[in-house]
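Kindly go through the following sequence and its backbone structure tokens. Advise at your convenience whether the structure tokens fit the sequence:

___
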Amino acid sequence: HQPGVFVQDARAMAVYDALEALRRSAPRPLQRWFDPLLLAERIAFVGATTGHFASMVSMQRLRQLNPFMAQSLRCFSILQSTSTLLDELNAFAPTVIATYPTVAALLSDVAAQGALHFAPKEIWTGGETLSAAVRRHVEQGLGCMVRNSYGASEFMSIGWECQHGQMHANTDWLILEPIDAQGQPVPPGQVSHSTLLTNLANFVQPLIRYDMGDQITVHKERCECGSSLPVIEVQGRRDDPLLMAGQDGRLVTLLPLALTTLLEDDAGVFDFQLRQQDDHTLVLRLDPHGADAPAAAARCRNALEKFAVTQGLARLRVRTELGRPVTRGRSGKPQRIVAQIQRKHG
């Protein structure tokens, strides 16, 4: 498989910006009332800052359209070492962090160790499944509220979280159709096999009943917040952080999105699973057959070994399994990064 390429025009991007600005529930409503343009905030996006990620493209676009935000809106790469990332974040001291749940959990761990020298006021998460346990861990560790969202390259602002913690779909700008394995509609309250999306905002590349592969549940009941937009639950990707042995005997966390970005961008593979065998060994399962399989495995091994040096790992062994199908997780999507032992939060 190859990644999809999605083109958004200025009108569609304006719709996404408006949905994010007007519907996202603010943990500090009084602050947002006096500062609707976030002029007093320092916002840090912590994620993959290279490649095709829509979140990064959106952040850079906001900086270009609003030069006054250039100093208060910055992007930080998760592909650099954790120590370098922390040095940069501590120097910037953001009041708001927009990132992935696994990164937020790592920052919460770091805060517990006393290595985070600032206190964020809000955490915005998306891009991965946010479990209740991880939410508690982040809110307790960082001492602030978490607001989650649901988006994709196909439509950047699919859902937003209200003050009651419910995810609402922006069904005035998109159509979500939960379907079963035969492509038939799934009734409210039942988990879908997949979801069809129709984008009502993008005219330059119309998407009509596009199969996203996401499993969702649409609920009939109205939310207590009063919104008429439907409440949904999303079974998204659940990749694991990997705890590996570091050079000084401590454990080093490898973030799942950093690993998938590395293998996609540097090694050019998209159908894979990286499974931890022990704190020094990873098993890489690749789907491709034929002459390209050994070459793809070599590219992956080289990228992972270089990344291990950057992250300060003691040593890394990469075993390969070629021509093996990639197993799928509970969400129906492949679980591409699998830890040896699942971490528990809360």
